[in-house]
Design goal:
Blueprint lengths: L4 H4 L2 E6 L11 E6 L4 H13 L4 E3 L6 E2 L5 E6 L9 E2 L6 E3 L4 H10 L2 E2 L11 H7 L2 E2 L2 E2 L4 E7 L5 E5 L16 E7 L2 E2 L2 H18 L19 H7 L6 E2 L2 E3 L7 E3 L5 H19 L8 E2 L1
The structure holds uridine-diphosphate-2(N-acetylglucosaminyl) butyric acid (EPU).
């Protein structure tokens, strides 16, 4: 495709996506576009939508599994300074979609702004965390969202209040829209107390999850009445291998990989785990990871 000069200088051809994901897996994207700001992105999205160009936004790459043949379309990366800004005005903190979640939740806690300490150690971008309502048993990103600026497919930017966002377990009403920034409502608290809670959540995560291995966090959603990790474990799949992918020996809802692994190894292992859990527990596990 010949990009107009308006976008060409921020358009990279044939980009390997693996290094941009926590799994370090997946083939190339035909193009990666780095918009300068929301107006630039808006014009691009409008043009791409009219020309039927497939688009995906890649945030921190912490919850995606990209197929070995990659993505034939344009991957948008919100890595320009405009999308990485944080405005610390009082407890209504505004964060751009491209802000790195892990240092951000730590910095909020360090400043005594409470609400994100339960996300300690969860990687990703603010936009990704917002869209999938990242979190765990102690709380979710959506709990503190006040409003969000989203870009629609027609290029218009709208501000959605939290009532419109429909936060649920690992999901929200953000679907084809692109998050530009979000405004959070945090609680002012004692910084020492917030940081203590942050460290406690972080150390619990370190004790129970394979954080040093390559993974995309939990692979399956928890069924409404059970923990996917416990089901996989009691079905005897902990440590089970396929190719260079393995069901973590530490937490059975993580699939970890070694160098040399392919996305196909992980996909095959996902199928094997689902089949075994269905046979042993009569439960169909639903994948949480976003497979491209
Ligand atoms: N368990 C096992 N074997 C295992 C893993 C867990 O028996 O291999 C048991 C645990 O002993 C515990 C129960 O299962 O009794 C629940 O385990 P855990 O507390 O680790 O929570 P989880 O339901 O497996 C959820 C989230 C995690 C989040 C943790 C902590 C999902 C799918 N997972 O895990 O989120 O970090 O709670 O808040 O909702 C993620 O979404 O990527 C993720 C890692």
């Amino acid at each position: 495709m010949n990009w107009s000069s308006e976008f060409a200088e921020r358009m990279e051809p044939d980009v390997l996506l693996a290094p941009l994901t926590w799994y370090r897996l997946g083939g190339p994207a035909t193009w990666v576009f780095h918009p300068r700001d929301s107006e630039d992105l808006s014009r691009f999205i409008k043009m791409a939508h009219n020309a039927n160009v497939p688009i995906k936004v890649l945030g921190g790459g912490a919850n995606v599994l990209i197929r070995d043949d990659g993505f034939d379309g344009v991957v948008v990366r919100l890595d320009a300074p405009y999308f990485r800004e944080v405005d610390w005005a009082k407890q209504y903190v505004r964060a751009g979609a491209g802000v790195d979640l892990m240092p951000f939740s730590r910095e909020c806690s360090r400043r005594g702004l409470s609400g994100l300490e339960c996300l300690a150690g969860i990687p990703g971008s603010v936009g990704g965390a917002m869209r999938m309502n990242a979190g765990g048993r102690s709380g979710e990103f959506g709990d503190v969202v006040y409003e969000v600026d989203v870009l629609l497919e027609d290029g218009c930017v709208q501000t959605w209040p939290r009532e419109r966002l429909g936060f649920r377990y690992r999901g929200s009403n953000i679907n084809r829209e692109i998050v530009i920034s979000t405004r959070l409502r945090l609680a002012v608290d004692n910084p020492t107390a917030v940081m203590r809670r942050y460290e406690e959540y972080f150390s619990l995560k370190q004790r129970t999850q394979p954080l040093v291995d390559r993974s995309a966090g939990c692979v399956f959603k928890n069924p409404s009445d059970a923990s996917a990790g416990a089901l996989i474990d009691s079905a005897g799949m902990k440590g089970y291998r396929y190719g260079s992918a393995q069901v973590s020996t530490q937490h059975a809802n993580f699939i970890v990989t070694e160098s040399g692994a392919s996305t196909d190894d992980v996909l095959r292992l996902i199928d094997l785990v689902r089949e075994r859990v269905a046979a042993v527990h009569q439960t169909k596990l639903e994948v949480e990871v976003d497979i491209w």
